[in-house]
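User: What would this chain look like folded?
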Amino acid sequence: MSLWLLVGLGGFVGAILRYWVSGWIQSGLLTFPLGTLGVNFLGSLLLALIMYASEYRGLFGEEARVFLTLGVLGSFTTMSAFSFESMKLLEQSEHMMFGLNLVGTVTLCLLAIYLGKLMIVGMGMK
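Assistant: Here's the prediction, encoded as structure tokens.
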């Protein structure tokens, strides 16, 4: 099966899982986004298990790894990819790049949210 189809099918599964798992975790909590936090933690843990099992144990072939990581977990949470890539920078003793990745990602993503809000509010929408 082609890799792009595996990513697409995995993304379908991951999106549904994200909706279900985050809703289940969040149920009853009104303000703090515990559902999102839980999904990001779980996705990061699962990505680490799959990637390190592939790298050190050879437990997953390319198609299974692509389906699970880029597809399922890529749709489940992108925080897992950000966390894994940050950890790889630490493992490679790229401390400056690690810090830049953390600060840059959080800062730019929050800035993007703010800019998006300004664009909509500037158009007179609420």
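The first helix runs from residue 3 to 26. If you want, I can go into more detail on any region.
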